């Protein structure tokens, strides 16, 4: 999303992140007015930007192209397409990634996510980044989802992971949306723990993977 996006230090617990304050105030004289507590700076991704929106779209297009090339090389009659991911570089978030995969696979029918170590169209990574969590691509069918430690302490970690995975499946950020909308990311605040896409988001993903894949497959065959 950069959930409106990203988290820091290996995930200890959501409670730790929620308890963080922007600054620690020292004692002040009784006559002095209490110093205001500066709010924590928002993650860059949660603010959204045209550049980020383009990056998310590029990631989806790259994954779509990668899947289309594989399908063209090995035609199959299966209606749903499989997108393989490699999560070995994000061991801290293995449970969240597995949960996110289960959520998406039970929510949509035209595309399925599958863990694997070879032939992956994207990977998951973890670490510290002031921008938060985000999706990134090199534009050539390879990309990764970065999961930031601190952001995943402040926001519900499964929601962060499912949100970023939503970009891989073609959904853009919509930070002004309600908590019930997965792609609203961090917009509803840290109290939002919903990690499930709503009906409109599920329908959009299914539509993208029927129409988008058909166009990508036609282009791949045409270029051969």
TrEMBL record:
<feature type="binding site">
    <location>
        <position position="173"/>
    </location>
    <ligand>
        <name>Zn(2+)</name>
    </ligand>
</feature>
<keyword id="KW-0378">Hydrolase</keyword>
<keyword id="KW-1015">Disulfide bond</keyword>
<dbReference type="GO" id="GO:0004222">
    <property type="term" value="F:metalloendopeptidase activity"/>
</dbReference>
<dbReference type="InterPro" id="IPR024079">
    <property type="entry name" value="MetalloPept_cat_dom_sf"/>
</dbReference>
<feature type="binding site">
    <location>
        <position position="167"/>
    </location>
    <ligand>
        <name>Zn(2+)</name>
    </ligand>
</feature>
<dbReference type="InterPro" id="IPR000013">
    <property type="entry name" value="Peptidase_M7"/>
</dbReference>
<feature type="binding site">
    <location>
        <position position="156"/>
    </location>
    <ligand>
        <name>Ca(2+)</name>
    </ligand>
</feature>
<feature type="active site">
    <location>
        <position position="164"/>
    </location>
</feature>
<feature type="binding site">
    <location>
        <position position="158"/>
    </location>
    <ligand>
        <name>Ca(2+)</name>
    </ligand>
</feature>
<keyword id="KW-0645">Protease</keyword>
<feature type="binding site">
    <location>
        <position position="163"/>
    </location>
    <ligand>
        <name>Zn(2+)</name>
    </ligand>
</feature>
<keyword id="KW-0482">Metalloprotease</keyword>
<keyword id="KW-0106">Calcium</keyword>
<comment type="similarity">
    <text>Belongs to the peptidase M7 family.</text>
</comment>
<keyword id="KW-0732">Signal</keyword>
<feature type="disulfide bond">
    <location>
        <begin position="179"/>
        <end position="192"/>
    </location>
</feature>
<dbReference type="Pfam" id="PF02031">
    <property type="entry name" value="Peptidase_M7"/>
</dbReference>
<protein>
    <recommendedName>
        <fullName>Extracellular small neutral protease</fullName>
        <ecNumber>3.4.24.77</ecNumber>
    </recommendedName>
</protein>
<dbReference type="GO" id="GO:0005576">
    <property type="term" value="C:extracellular region"/>
</dbReference>
<keyword id="KW-0964">Secreted</keyword>
<keyword id="KW-0862">Zinc</keyword>
<keyword id="KW-0479">Metal-binding</keyword>
<dbReference type="GO" id="GO:0008270">
    <property type="term" value="F:zinc ion binding"/>
</dbReference>
<dbReference type="GO" id="GO:0006508">
    <property type="term" value="P:proteolysis"/>
</dbReference>
<feature type="signal peptide">
    <location>
        <begin position="1"/>
        <end position="32"/>
    </location>
</feature>
């Amino acid at each position: 999303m950069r959930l409106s996006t990203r988290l820091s230090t290996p995930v200890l617990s959501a409670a730790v992140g929620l308890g963080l304050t922007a600054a620690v105030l020292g004692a002040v004289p009784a006559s002095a007015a209490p110093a205001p507590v500066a709010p924590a700076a928002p993650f860059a991704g949660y603010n959204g930007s045209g550049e980020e929106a383009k990056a998310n779209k590029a990631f989806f297009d790259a994954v779509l192209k990668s899947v289309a090339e594989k399908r063209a090389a090995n035609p199959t009659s299966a209606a749903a397409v499989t997108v393989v991911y490699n999560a070995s570089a994000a061991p801290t978030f293995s449970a969240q990634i597995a949960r996110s995969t289960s959520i998406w696979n039970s929510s949509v029918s035209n595309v399925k996510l599958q863990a694997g170590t070879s032939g992956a169209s994207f990977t998951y990574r973890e670490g510290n980044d002031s921008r938060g969590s985000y999706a990134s691509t090199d534009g050539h069918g390879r990309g990764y989802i970065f999961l930031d430690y601190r952001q995943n302490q402040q926001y519900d970690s499964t929601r962060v992971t499912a949100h970023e995975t939503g970009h891989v499946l073609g959904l853009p950020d919509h930070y002004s949306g309600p908590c019930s909308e997965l792609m609203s990311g961090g917009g509803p605040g840290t109290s939002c723990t919903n990690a499930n896409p709503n009906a409109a988001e599920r329908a959009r993903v299914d539509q993208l993977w029927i129409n988008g894949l058909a166009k990508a497959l036609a282009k791949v065959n045409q270029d051969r």
